[in-house]
Protein: ATP-dependent bile acid permease
Organism: Fusarium oligoseptatum
Amino acid sequence: MKTKMVKSTPESIAAFSNRLPKASVLAFSTIGFGTWIAISIFSSLELSSKLLENWLIAGAWGLILLHAISLSAHHSSVKVHNLGLWLLASGLVVATLTVPQLITEAQHVSSDNVPVVILRAVNVVAVISLCLSSVLLPRRPEVYFKDRKVDAQWTVSALSRYTWTWVEPLLQYASKRNDLDAGDVPHPDRKLRSGPLKHDWDAMRFDGSLLRALLWAYKGSLVLQWSVTIFRNFLGLLPFWTMLRLINILEQRDSRRSEASLELWILVFAMAAFNLLDAWVEGWVFWYSFADVSLPIRAQLSTLVFEKSLRRKNVKAAEKQKETPESQEADGNNKDDDDESDSSSVLKSRQAIVNLVGVDAARIANFAAYQFLIINSVAKLIMFSFFLVRLIGWIPFGAGILAWAATLPANTYFSKALLGKSEKLMKLRDEKLAVVNEALLGMRQIKFSALEARWEQRILAMREKELKTLWQLFIVDTGLFGCWVVSPILLAATSLAIYAIVHGELLPSVAFVSIGIFKALEVTLGVLPELITMSVDTLVSIKRIDTYLQGPEMEKTLSEGSDVGFESASIAWPVDEDTPDEDRFILRNLNFNFPAGELSVISGKTGTGKSLLLSAILGETDLLDGSIRVPTTVKPAKRHDDEAHPGNWIVPGSIAYVGQTPWLESASFRDNILFGLPLIEERYQKVIEVCALKKDLEILTDGDKTELGANGINLSGGQKWRVTLARAIYSRAEILVMDDVFSAVDAHVGRHIFEKCVTGDICKGRTRILVTHHVALVQTKAKFIIELGEGTVLHSGLVSDLIQDGTLEEIKSHEQTSQQILEDEAADSSTAVNSEEASVTDETAETNGLQKVQSKDAKQFIQEELREKGVVKKHVYMTYLRDSGGLLLWGICAVIFLGYEIGILGRAWWLRIWTGDADDGVSSVSVHQQHGHASILSLQQFPLNSASGLRVAESQNDLNFYLYVYIGISSVTAVIGTLRFFWAYFLAIKASRSLFEKMLFAVLHTPLRWLDTVPVGRVLNRFTSDFNIIDNRITIDWTMFISNLLSLGGVCVAAFFASSYVIPLAVVLLGLGIMIGNKYLYGARPLKRLESNCKSPVFELFQRGAGWRFYHPWFPEDSSLR
């Protein structure tokens, strides 16, 4: 796999420099080494007890200096960057040894040790500066991939990479323009490009299930992520430990007020440091989860599904042939399987591929981004449980665990029900998508027949089934959420109640710290229901994709030979299960060879297997017996099409196929003919002439630069077919396989194509195999003729032999009448005739080249997908608000969430009453604990408070009263917490139903011109990916926003009661958060819109992939993947 396409430009190399940080590293290493040598000499003169320790540290500084010298001498920027990271590790080790010594010396400063203290201070500054300089070394110059800058994650310094400031230029650019285009976004790094990811996946050669393959492929990333997650949980205990120590000091402080105050300050700053470090580790874990796990998995799965679609059996043809062979032959086996009866199987529906990529792969990637939270929850539960046991004892904690475990049976029931509902929902979505796709592809017939209302009812009926199942899934999900909302509240209430009963009192140090831990567990365990839901959905999606990837592929049925031929062959349309031969249409006992370099003709009535025979030549049928031979050819990668010229144009053994149904790309006229090959002007002009397209180009507004639209919608039926033929004729194929090329043209146009194209100079020496009903038209120049009928070959042989024995006349007598043929062609004949007449009326005129386009730029028929710019408009919010129930229902939702927040604050308030009549400083801490860690600044108020009144009254009646009220508040809070999700899901269903109906009505009643200019993939993107978000995410995200907003209000209330000094700092922090959030939104909004729009071409590619059969014989599969 070539990855050298990533390279730096001369400009980026010239702009790159790491001299300053390299010089800084060398300078600070020298200063550190020199100062510590001086310190060691002083300790030797004074015979200090730290003499050996100091000289060992001096040796470490010497190694650091050698490291810095080596780093400065290196010219490879990547090696210098890596050496800087090792130097950082060395500097941190030295700092852990030298900083404590400085603190010890500073506490006992005297005239004798002032020089040593100064030297130690300089040394500490040097080691800190050294560490900072080592992470400021840039890794490499800016690099480019396909003339587009690669994102700077692996270009910038380690400090920029691990503080995520490398994305700052893009955010600044977005804030200036208030928008971003696809070209403004840097190209992803190799780890996120589908080509290298596909190569890495293939290199592992996985066997077995997709789940095991994914776990094995990402085992290193997952182990690293899970390890850091477990470390973070240990780190998360440290703030609680400092809080416990801090409150113990407040409870037990004595006359040594100054010492207590000093220790309080140390604990406060330690808590701040622990929280900041915890926040950074959390940010890194989330970033790593998205960048190194989620996005690569999505790219790999999408590529695997598309690659599989290029290799899988075309089983729909077999089923149709089995039912009605005649209709299958008439259709050319190329219709989409929109009316697939068994839509539950992803293998039997092309439209299901869109769901596999748009929904299933996205769900798997989304779960991959958050799966570490399960490890986080388990690890936190275990670690915090040990801490709680030390804090409140085994008996209260054991009682709390039993209360928590009481919800497990219900949790198990809801989890199993969730799995069943999720599988059913995805099957219904496949069925709905098949019907929607069928309507989109047949929109002309629907409109011409005025069937919009009927199709709307049909689609809405499928949608109603989907929403019914979705609502059942939401009910089950609500039950699951209820279990996990109730369980941590039961754990906290039961543990504290039993503790109070056992000990007869509830100290603030126990109450506040335990409530803080319980709240942390509540937040952690509270995400488990959603994670369980995501994991169930992910298992369903993995199973669906795995089933698709494990499906049958086209087996190799072709053997090498000098020409195209069949030897005792029996062929049938492919099937994906064991089907009895009597239920399959089979061509048996095929024995003939097509003469190389000559025209061979296949004839027979409709339904006799002519298209089946052509498919067998392409290797797309089941070979039941015998053998099929085709000439060998070079692999696509070794053809070097970009170097082709008239002297080596024809590639021996290569095949081009022209089907009955034209297949065109949404590209220009010229690009559809060239199809990735270089332009040879003389050959191109000749192809246009022999395919009767010259006059058509003169009529088209922009000549051969005219955009043809989705599947050539700008052309008539005859024009589409002739462009498809021209593509095959222009190709480098030696063997041309053509299916009834005269059925879509008038007789005189057909004769022109036959004489000038099929048997003209441009096809001289090429093997041509032609299916036709017009034997009389082609017999004069045909070399070999086959007639099919009754499941076998009725007649075959050289034309000269067939003429001598009279067989040719018998074959011609079996031809269908002109009227029968015209009935098959009636769909496009009216529009095709005028064009075809224009194309051949001036055959005697001189060919002076194609008409040149006067305008510089051809008109773009398929317009670029539009997207909003700037902030989301007010009417968007109002539309969703109205369709989801209006102000009344959203007002009820706000009241429910407010009630839950009041319940949370009420528990804290009641604990404050329970733990004694302390003043506001204590209550502020308890209130704030409901939202996370204690406020650092609020704890400064404790030295001013009296310790009296912090113990609970010993009256048993009072204890029971406090317990009952606390349990009552907790129970009501749990019920309201569960009701939140039920109401959110209720609003989501209302919005989904209304918005889908409006969009469907708009699409079905829009003018045909709009449908012609909008690719089907763009519409499918709206109906699949976007509505998946509307169904499952938007309302939940909005309700979570309300919840977090109310939680923020609770924090502000806690800060207000804590101290008036907190308010200015809170305002500053709030303003800073708003500023950063606003800057983030400037980049996030356009990127989200770009992401949504960029899905449309992907869906369109998958949709067009259904027609790959028309070109894959001569078009490299790898090019399709790229």
